[in-house]
Design a protein that fits this description.
CATH architecture of the domain at 247-346 in chain B: 2-Layer Sandwich
Keywords (chain A): Molybdenum, Oxidoreductase
Shape of chain B: globular
Structural class of chain A: alpha+beta
Domain Aldehyde oxidase/xanthine dehydrogenase a/b hammerhead (chain A): 20-140
Oligomer: heterodimer
Organism (chain A): Spirosoma endophyticum
Number of strands of chain A: 31
Radius of gyration of chain A: 27 Å
CATH class of the largest domain in chain A: Alpha Beta
InterPro entries (chain A): Ald_Oxase/Xan_DH_a/b (IPR000674), Ald_Oxase/Xan_DH_a/b_sf (IPR036856), Ald_Oxase/xanthine_DH-like (IPR016208), AldOxase/xan_DH_MoCoBD1 (IPR008274), AldOxase/xan_DH_MoCoBD2 (IPR046867), AldOxase/xan_DH_Mopterin-bd_sf (IPR037165)
CATH topology of the domain at 247-346 in chain B: Enolase-like, domain 1
Radius of gyration of chain B: 20 Å
Protein name (chain A): Xanthine dehydrogenase YagR molybdenum-binding subunit
Largest interface: A-B, 40 and 40 residues
Bound molecules: flavin-adenine dinucleotide
Largest sheet of chain A: 7 strands, mixed
C-alpha cells in the first residue's frame, strides 16, 4: 500500500521544545544527591603506569572517591564483552590486547582513563582530578598509519577483506589507465553535546540510566551483560541527543565504569567528558589510505577497477567498515577487485562516523572517476552514464529502485552544469578560479526489525510509541507523518513518545535505517487500528454494516463511504458505542523474504561550485546542490535538513576537518574546537536540496529509503573534483587546505 | 580549574596596586584567553583582579588621532564609526579575529596580551620553553604560577614545535628556544598604523611604540612583550593617516571564519593616482610579534602600483625567512599573500 502522493512539508514536531530549552538531554536530568565524576586520562600512548599518587586528590574538598586500576569495583560481566557493539554483543575477534577500563596499569592509547575522580560537585571533581599524579614507563607508540600500512591484516569475516569479480588485474591492459592514492585523516564526530552518562541505582539490582546513546535498547543490553542483571531491571532514557554522528553507536567502557562506581558509592553519578576527551574516548573516523587502479577503453567504458583500502584500528579491538563496498556495485564494470586491511595501532578504537566507510571509499572512487573522465576528455556525468548499471553487478539482482539518472540530470540543471568547461583552469571571476564538480553517493537501504505501539483514544488523539532515539534527523516528525498518512488523524493530535526502554523495542538509530524500520512498525500498528475501526463500523449492528473496507475512507476522525459522504460515523462515537476508551496495537515489523531478491540502496548526487584563489590557495564552496534518490520522502522538511547537515559535514570533511597527532608523543595537538575545524557558517553556502521522491516499491509500505548517510557520502569527492576543474590540480589527501592548493599552483 | 580569589576594582590605581602587592595576581579583562589557560593549567593564578569596571572602555578623538581604551571590547572597536571611517584596517582586522561571541567579550588590552596558540604551550605534558622556561631566576611569569598544592613543575622544557606540528609557526625571528607566533589580528593593524601603547604602572606612566610592545623569543620565550610587572595597559593611540581609501586586511586561514591565520597581511596605502605615496605593511602568523615589513614599504614608496612592484616588495619582505618543515609552505604563501593584499588594497586587477 505504497502512498503515491508526495508528503507535505511539516514542521519538526520537537522543534519548539528544542529551541525553547524544553528538550531534556541526558546531562539536563537532575537527581537529588547526584555525585559527579571526572576522568583523568593517560598522557602517554603506550607503556605502563609506574606510579599513581591519588592522596592529594582524595583529600581535596568534596571528594567521595578516586577510582583507579588498584581499587576499581569489579564489573561482574567483565569477561563478557563490556562495551559490546550497539546491536548486541558481537563476539570480538581475539586481539593480542584486551582493554578493560581501569583494570591494569597497562596503557594502550593516549587519553586512556587512569583514574575516575568522584566528588559532590563537578568543579570539585575537576580540581581533584588535576591533583592525581602519574608517572609512566613509556614505550614507543605506533600511531602513524602511513608508517605501518604494510602491517595490514585481513579482517575476520566471510570474504577476508577481499572481493573479486572477473580478473583482478584487467585494468592493466586497458587503453587508458589510472593509478592514484587517496588519504583520509582522522576525523572526530564532535557533536555539540558532550558524551557522558547519568547512572542511578534505584535498588540493589535496578538501574536507571540517562545516556547519550543512539540506542536505548543496546545500552540496556550492554549494561545487563556487564552487571549480570535482567534487562527489564534496567531503564534507559535518551529521548534527545545533541548530535551523534556515530559516536553513540555503542556503549563505551567509561559508561560501564560510571555505573559500577555509582553502585559502589551508593549515589547517582554523572559523567560529562570534556572536549579533548571526545577525541580519545568515543571513537573517530579512522585514518585510511586507499589506492585505486582503473582502466577504461577509449569509449569511456570501464574495463577494470581495483580498490585497496587500509585503515587504522586499535591494538585491542578490530574495527572494520565498508570502505570499499561502493566500488563493487556502483558501475557496470566486468572486472572489479577490492581489498580491505586494518592495522592495529596504539590508538583508541575508531567507530562509524556519518556516511561511515562508504564516505571514505566514495572520496577515492568518485575522485578516480573524475580523474578518468578527464583522461578520456569526457564530461564526468557522461562518463558515469556510460557505465551506468540498472542491475547490481555485485549480487546480480535488480535494485529495488534506482533513479540515479534523473538525479544526475536534475542536479546538473540546478547547479548550472552547462556553464562548466571541461578544460580545467579555464573559468575566472576576477582573480578567482571557478570550478564545478560532482560525485555520486550510495548507501544500503536497510529494513531492520523494529516494533512500535500506537494508541487511538476515543477523544480522537493518537499516541505513537517506540524506544528509538531521535538523534536529530527528525524521527519523531517522520513517525508522525507516517501515522497521519494511515489514520488521517490531524497532525496536532498526534504525539510521538520515544527514546526510552519502557517503550517497544527498536533498533539503534544508525545506518539511515530508522524511518524504514520503525516507520514500518508504526505503519503496521496504524493499519491494524484502521482495520479494527472498519470492523467495528461494518460488523452486524455497526453503523456502516455490510460495507467493504475499500469503500470506506477515514479522515479527521470520521469514517465514511467514499462515494456517499453522508454515510459516516465519527470514530469517537464508534469507540464509545463499543465501550472502547482506546484502541491499542503493538506491531513488530520486519521485511519479508522477498527483499532478498533485490539490492536496496539509496543514492545521492552532489554538485558544487568552488572558487579558488590562485595566490593563497583558499577554496570556497560557493554553491552546493545535493540530490537524494531515497524513495518516498516521508517528511520533506526534516529530510532537507538532513541533506543540509550532511553537506555541511561534507564541506568539513573536504576542506577543514583533520585531527592531528604528534607521533613522537602519540598525542593529539588540536583536540579542541578552536583547532579542529568543523565547517562554520561562513564555509557553508546556501544549499539546494532536491528530492527525487519516488517510492521504492519493495523496501517497506511507505516506499521510503534512508537518507542520513547519503547526504554526506560522496560530497568530499565533489569538492575535490571542483577544485581540479578550477585549477587543474588534483588534491588526493583530505582536507583540502590552502597550503596544499597554493603549493600546487605556485 | 584551580581555586582562586576574585576581586573587582574601579580605578586603575587599585588595579595596579592589587597586582603589584601579591604574587600570582592577574588582571582579568574579557577572560577569553586567561580562563582557557587556567583550565589547561598553563597559568594558575592565585588571584584575579577584574578590570572590566575601569573607566577605560572609551573610544575618542584626540588632537593627533584616536584613543582607544584598553577595556573597549573588540566588537565595539570594530563597529565604531570613527574606526570604520578613519582606520578601516583596524576594523577589518578585528572582524577577522575569533568569533562574534568572543569579540563581544575580548578587550583591546587582552587581545594584545593574549598568549600564543602553539599546541605545545597549551599541553603541559609536552615540552615548551615558553610555558616552562629553563630557570635563570626570577623571569617574569615563571614559577610563581605554580602552587604548592599542585606539587608539579609546569611540564617539560624544550621546544615541542621544532620537529613537531609546526604548520602554524614562525618563519621570521624565531629562536631555537621558541618558534611560536603571536596570534592576534588586531595587533597587525595596530603595528601597521604606528600605534602607541599607553601604560601605567607602579613606577608611573609610559608610552610604548606598538612595534616595541611585543618581542622576539630569543632565549626568553616566556616573555611575550615588554610590559613590566604590575603595568596596566590604559589605551592605544592611533595617529591620523591618509590610508582610509586603500586599506585591506587579508587573512588566509583553514576555514572562512573562526580560525587563526596561517598568514595574514595588513596593508594601508596613501595613493595618488596609481602612485604609492605612502604605505604600511605588516604580517601576522609569521613571527613571535606582529611583523612589520619596512623594507617592502621603503621599496614601494613613490612607485606605481603594479604587480611587478608588488612581487619585488614581497621578495624583499621575505628576506631572512626560514621554515621549520610543516610551515615551509609559508615561504610561498606569505609573499603570495602580500601580493594579493596589495592588489586588493590598490584595486589592481
Ligand atoms: C577559540 C578562540 C579563537 C580565537 N581566534 C582569534 C583570532 O582568530 N584572532 C585573534 O586575534 N584572536 C583570536 N582569539 C583570541 C582573542 O582575541 C583573545 O582571547 C582576546 O583578545 C583576549 O582578550 P580578553 O579581554 O578576553 O583577555 P583576557 O583573557 O581577560 O586576558 C588575557 C591576558 O591579558 C592580560 N590583560 C588583559 N587586559 C590587560 C590590560 N589592560 N593590561 C595588562 N594586561 C592585561 C590578562 O592579565 C591576561 O594575562 C581567539 C580566542 C579563542 C578562545
Amino acid at each position: 500500500m505504497t502512498k503515491d502522493t508526495k508528503n507535505p512539508p511539516i514542521d519538526r514536531v520537537d522543534g519548539r521544545l528544542k529551541v525553547t530549552g524544553g528538550a531534556n538531554y541526558f546531562a539536563d536530568f537532575e537527581i537529588p544527591n547526584t555525585a559527579y565524576c571526572v576522568i583523568v586520562g593517560s598522557k602517554i600512548a603506550k607503556g605502563t603506569i609506574a606510579s599513581l599518587d591519588t592522596k592529594k586528590a582524595q583529600n581535596a574538598p568534596g571528594v567521595l572517591g578516586v577510582f583507579t586500576h588498584q581499587n576499581m569495583p569489579p564489573i561482574p560481566g567483565w569477561d563478557a564483552p563490556v562495551g559490546g557493539e550497539a546491536d548486541g554483543p558481537a563476539p570480538k575477534p581475539k586481539t593480542e590486547e584486551t582493554y578493560r577500563i581501569l583494570s591494569s596499569s597497562k596503557i594502550l592509547f593516549d587519553g586512556q582513563p587512569i583514574a575516575i575522580v568522584v566528588a559532590d560537585t563537578y568543579e570539585r571533581a575537576t580540581y581533584a582530578a588535576s591533583l592525581v599524579k602519574a608517572t609512566y614507563s613509556k614505550q614507543t607508540a605506533r600511531t602513524d598509519l602511513q608508517k605501518h600500512v604494510a602491517e595490514g591484516i585481513a579482517p575476520k569475516g566471510a570474504d577476508g577483506g577481499n572481493y573479486l569479480r572477473g580478473k583482478p588485474d584487467a585494468y592493466q591492459a586497458a587503453p587508458v589507465t589510472l593509478e592514484a592514492n587517496y588519504t583520509i585523516p582522522i576525523e572526530v564526530h564532535n557533536p555539540m553535546e558532550l558524551h557522558g552518562i547519568l547512572a542511578h541505582w534505584t535498588g540493589p539490582n535496578t538501574l536507571m540510566i540517562y545516556a547519550k546513546t543512539q540506542g536505548v535498547n543496546a545500552t540496556q543490553q550492554a549494561m545487563a551483560e556487564a552487571f549480570k542483571i535482567a534487562p527489564k531491571n534496567i531503564h534507559v532514557h535518551a529521548e534527545f541527543m545533541g548530535g551523534g554522528f556515530g559516536m553513540g553507536l555503542r556503549t563505551w567502557p567509561q559508561e560501564t565504569a560510571v555505573v559500577a562506581i555509582a553502585r559502589k558509592i551508593g549515589r547517582p553519578l554523572k559523567l560529562v567528558v570534556n572536549r579533548s576527551q571526545m577525541f580519545t574516548l568515543v571513537g573517530h573516523r579512522p585514518y585510511t589510505v586507499q589506492t585505486i587502479n582503473m582502466g577504461a577503453d577509449q569509449d569511456g567504458k570501464l574495463i577494470g577497477i581495483a580498490h585497496a583500502a587500509t585503515a587504522e584500528t586499535a591494538s585491542y579491538e578490530d574495527f572494520t567498515e565498508a570502505t570499499v563496498n561502493m566500488t563493487k556495485f556502483m558501475y557496470a564494470c566486468p572486472n572489479v577487485s577490492t581489498r580491505y586491511r586494518i592495522v592495529r595501532l596504539d590508538r583508541s578504537v575508531p567507530i562509524w562516523m556519518r556516511g561511515p566507510g562508504e564516505a571514505t571509499g566514495a572520496f577515492a572512487l568518485e575522485s578516480a572517476m573524475d580523474e578518468m573522465a578527464h583522461k578520456l576528455k569526457l564530461d564526468p556525468i557522461e562518463f558515469r552514464l556510460r557505465n551506468y548499471t540498472e542491475t547490481d553487478p555485485e549480487h546480480n539482482r535488480p535494485y529495488s529502485s534506482k533513479n540515479l539518472k534523473e538525479a544526475y540530470q536534475r542536479g546538473a540543471e540546478a547547479i548550472g552544469w552547462s556553464k562548466r568547461k571541461n578544460e580545467p583552469g579555464s573559468t575566472r571571476e576576477g582573480d578567482w578560479l571557478i570550478g564545478y564538480g560532482m560525485s555520486t553517493g550510495t548507501f544500503n537501504a536497510f529494513r531492520w526489525e523494529a516494533s512500535a505501539r500506537v494508541l487511538l483514544k476515543a477523544d480522537g488523539s493518537l499516541t505513537v510509541q517506540s524506544a528509538v532515539t531521535d538523534i536529530g534527523p527528525g524521527t519523531g516528525t517522520a513517525l508522525t507523518m507516517i501515522a497521519h498518512n494511515v489514520l488521517n488523524v490531524p497532525l496536532n493530535r498526534i504525539k510521538v513518545e520515544y527514546g526510552d526502554t519502557s517503550l517497544p523495542k527498536a533498533p539503534t538509530q544508525g545506518g539511515s535505517a530508522i524511518v524504514s524500520a520503525v516507520g514500518s512498525a508504526v505503519f503496521d500498528a496504524c493499519t491494524s487500528i484502521k482495520q479494527a475501526l472498519i470492523e467495528l463500523a461494518t460488523k452486524n449492528g455497526g453503523p456502516l454494516v455490510g460495507r467493504q473496507a475499500d469503500e470506506l475512507t477515514l479522515a479527521d476522525g470520521i469514517l465514511s463511504i467514499l462515494t456517499e459522504p453522508k454515510k459516516k460515523v465519527a470514530v469517537s462515537d464508534l469507540m464509545q458505542a463499543n465501550n472502547l476508551a482506546v484502541i491499542d496495537r503493538t506491531k513488530e515489523s520486519k521485511g519479508g523474504p522477498q527483499l532478498q531478491n533485490y539490492s536496496m540502496y539509496s543514492f545521492s548526487v552532489h554538485f558544487v561550485q568552488v572558487r579558488v584563489n590562485p595566490l593563497t590557495g583558499v577554496v570556497r564552496v560557493t554553491k552546493a546542490v545535493s540530490v537524494a534518490d531515497s524513495g518516498r520522502i516521508v517528511s520533506p522538511k526534516t529530510a532537507a535538513s538532513q541533506m543540509i547537515g550532511g553537506v555541511a559535514g561534507g564541506i568539513g570533511m573536504a576542506l577543514t576537518e583533520e585531527a592531528v597527532i604528534d607521533h613522537r608523543f602519540g598525542r593529539f595537538v588540536n583536540n579542541n574546537l578552536a583547532d579542529y575545524h568543523v565547517a562554520v557558517h561562513a564555509d557553508v553556502p546556501a544549499i539546494e536540496t532536491i528530492m527525487i521522491d519516488k517510492p521504492d516499491p519493495i523496501i517497506n509500505p511507505m516506499g521510503a529509503k534512508g537518507m542520513g548517510e547519503i547526504a554526506l557520502i560522496g560530497f568530499a569527492g565533489a569538492v575535490a573534483n571542483a577544485v581540479f576543474n578550477a585549477t587543474g590540480q588534483r588534491i588526493r589527501d583530505l582536507p583540502i587546505t590552502p597550503d596544499k592548493v597554493m603549493q600546487k599552483l605556485t | 580549574m584551580n581555586p582562586f580569589q576574585f576581586t573587582r576594582v574601579t580605578t586603575p590605581k587599585a588595579a595596579i596596586s592589587a597586582v603589584t602587592k601579591e604574587k600570582g595576581t592577574y588582571f582579568l579583562a574579557g577572560g577569553t584567553n586567561l580562563i582557557d589557560l587556567m583550565k589547561r593549567e598553563v597559568v594558575i593564578p592565585e588571584r584575579l583582579v577584574d578590570i572590566n569596571k575601569l573607566p577605560l572602555a572609551t573610544i575618542e578623538k584626540t588632537v593627533t588621532g584616536l584613543r582607544i581604551g584598553a577595556t573597549a571590547k573588540n566588537s565595539a572597536v570594530a563597529d565604531n564609526e570613527l574606526v570604520k571611517k578613519y582606520f578601516p584596517l583596524l576594523s577589518q582586522a578585528l572582524n577577522a579575529g575569533a568569533s562574534a561571541q568572543l569579540r563581544n567579550m575580548a578587550t583591546v588590552g587582552g587581545n594584545m596580551m593574549q598568549r600564543t596558540r602553539c599546541a605545545y604551550f597549551y599541553d603541559n605534558s609536552m615540552p615548551c620553553n615558553k610555558r616552562s622556561p629553563v630557570q635563570t631566576g626570577g623571569a617574569a611569569g615563571s614559577t610563581e604560577r605554580f602552587r604548592a598544592d599542585k606539587g608539579q613543575a609546569n611540564g617539560p622544557t624544550g621546544c615541542g614545535a621544532i620537529g613537531g606540528f609546526n604548520r602554524m609557526h614562525a618563519i621570521f625571528g624565531a629562536s631555537e628556544k621558541c618558534i611560536a607566533v603571536h596570534p592576534s589580528d588586531m595587533c597587525i593593524a595596530l603595528v601597521a598604523l604606528d600605534a602607541t601603547v599607553n601604560v601605567s604602572g607602579p613606577k608611573g606612566d609610559r608610552k610604548i611604540p606598538f612595534g616595541e610592545f611585543h618581542r622576539l623569543p630569543g632565549d626568553k620565550p616566556q616573555q611575550d612583550n615588554t610590559l613590566q610587572p604590575g603595568e596596566l595597559i590604559m589605551s592605544v593611540d592611533l595617529p591620523t593617516n591618509r590610508f582610509s581609501d586603500n586599506s585591506h586586511y587579508l587573512k588566509v586561514r583553514d576555514r572562512a571564519s573562526y580560525a587563526f591565520a596561517l598568514v595574514s597581511v595588513g596593508v594601508a596605502l596613501d595613493m595618488k593616482g596609481n602612485t604609492i605615496r605612502d604605505v604600511r605593511l605588516a604580517m601576522g602568523g609569521v613571527a613571535h610579534k606582529p611583523w612589520r615589513l619596512t623594507k617592502a614599504e621603503d621599496f614601494l614608496r613613490g612607485k606605481p602600483a603594479t604587480e611587478a612592484n608588488f612581487k619585488q616588495a614581497a621578495a624583499l619582505a621575505m628576506q631572512g625567512a626560514k621554515g621549520y618543515g610543516e610551515n615551509d609552505f609559508k615561504l610561498t604563501l606569505a609573499p603570495n599573500s602580500i601580493i594579493d593584499a596589495l592588489k586588493t588594497a590598490t584595486k589592481t586587477a
